[in-house]
Design goal:
binds uridine 5'-triphosphate; about 280 residues; globular; alpha/beta; about 40% helix; two-stranded antiparallel ribbon; Spore Coat Polysaccharide Biosynthesis Protein SpsA, Chain A; about 25% strand; nine-stranded mixed β-sheet
Length: about 280
C-alpha cells in the first residue's frame, strides 16, 4: 500500500516560522514532524510515499534525499544512531513529489497524487497530525481496511468547546471503537453537531472515494475538502467506517499542540526527561 502526505498548506497558524520552512519540517526536538510520520509509515509496512508539495518543496526533497557527504561525516564521528535513522528512510523508502499549484484544500491536494495511487486503496496522513501509539494509527487503519474493505477515517472524541474546530461525524457503532458513518459536518456549532467524534488527519481512501472527489473537482469552485467526498459517499449510501484510534494525538499545526508534542516526546527521552522535569519543577514561570 502507498501513502500520500499533503504538505502544501499555507500553515498560517505557525507563521512566521512556516514562511521559510513548511510547518511539517519543524522539529520535534531533533526530528522533523515529517520524519516521525514517515517512520510511522515505515513501521506500518509502507514503502512508497507521495508528498503533495507547495512552494517550499526544495527543503523537503533535500531532507529525504541520500546525502553521501553527511553520511561519511556521521560515520567518521561514530554517530551511528542518527546515521541509521536517516538511512532507513532515505534508502528503504521511495519518495515521489507532486506539486499542488495553489492551496485549494486537502481534497484538492489528495487529488494531485491521483496518478501515483491509480486504482488502489491508499493511506492519507496529514503532515501536521502526530499520534503516539503502541500500535501506530496507520497500522490500525490498515488493519481495519483489511477487515472491512471500506474507507476508514481515524476519529477522536473532542471536548464540546473544540467541536467547532473539526469535521464531526455521525453514525452507528457496530463494534468497539468502530462506527458506520452516515453524516459528516464541517466545523458545526456544538448544538448542531451529530456527535463529539472529530475527524483527525489520517484516512484510508478507496478508489470509489477518489472517483467522487474527482467528479466534485469538476463541479466545484474554490476549496475542495476531503470531507466533501465523504459527504458524497453518505449521500450515495456508500459505506464509510469511523475508527476511534488508540493513542495520543498532537496537532503540530498550532502553537500549543506543537509545544505539547515537544514536551511529550522530550519526557519519553531518557536523555532529556530527568533534567527537563527538574527544570520545570525548579523554575518559576
Ligand atoms: P490544515 O488544515 O492544517 O491547513 O491542513 P493549513 O493551510 O496547512 O494550515 P493553517 O490552517 O493555514 O494554519 C492539513 C494538512 O493538509 C495540507 C497541509 O499542509 C497539512 O499537512 N494541505 C492543506 C495541503 O497540502 N493543501 C491544501 O490546500 C490544504
Amino acid at each position: 500500500m502507498k501513502a500520500v502526505i499533503p504538505v502544501a498548506g499555507l500553515g498560517t497558524r505557525m507563521l512566521p516560522a512556516s514562511k521559510a520552512c513548511s510547518k511539517e519540517l519543524l522539529p520535534i526536538i531533533d526530528r522533523p514532524v515529517l520524519h516521525l510520520l514517515v517512520e510511522e509509515l515505515y513501521e506500518a509496512g509502507i514503502r512508497e510515499v507521495i508528498f503533495v508539495v507547495g512552494k517550499n518543496k526544495k527543503a523537503l526533497q533535500n531532507y529525504f534525499k541520500v546525502d553521501p557527504s553527511l553520511e561519511a561525516v556521521l560515520q567518521s564521528k561514530g554517530q551511528s544512531k542518527v546515521l541509521a535513522s536517516l538511512k532507513k528512510l532515505n534508502t528503504k523508502m521511495k519518495f515521489e513529489y507532486v506539486e499542488q499549484k495553489q492551496p485549494l484544500g486537502d481534497g484538492d491536494a489528495v487529488l494531485c497524487a491521483h496518478k501515483f495511487v491509480k486504482d488502489e486503496a491508499f493511506l492519507v496522513i496529514f503532515g501536521d497530525d502526530l499520534i503516539d501509539a503502541a500500535v501506530s494509527c496507520s497500522k490500525q487503519l490498515i488493519a481495519a481496511y483489511k477487515k472491512y474493505r471500506m474507507p476508514v477515517i481515524a476519529l477522536e472524541r473532542v471536548p464540546r468547546e473544540d467541536i467547532s474546530k473539526y469535521g464531526i461525524v455521525g453514525g452507528a457503532s457496530f463494534a468497539k471503537r468502530f462506527y458506520k458513518l452516515d453524516c459528516f459536518v464541517e466545523k458545526p456549532l456544538p448544538e448542531n453537531a451529530p456527535s463529539d467524534l472529530a475527524i483527525v488527519g489520517k484516512y484510508l481512501i478507496t478508489p470509489i472515494l477518489l472517483k467522487l472527489l474527482k467528479e466534485m473537482a469538476g463541479q466545484k469552485k474554490g476549496e475542495l475538502r476531503l470531507i466533501d467526498a465523504f459527504h458524497a459517499m453518505a449521500h450515495n449510501k456508500l459505506p464509510v467506517i469511523g475508527m476511534e484510534f488508540t493513542g495520543q494525538r498532537f496537532d503540530t499545526g498550532n502553537k500549543l499542540g506543537y509545544v505539547k508534542a515537544i514536551m511529550h516526546y522530550a519526557m519519553k527521552d531518557p536523555e532529556l526527561a530527568a533534567e527537563l522535569k527538574k527544570y520545570l519543577r525548579d523554575k518559576e514561570f
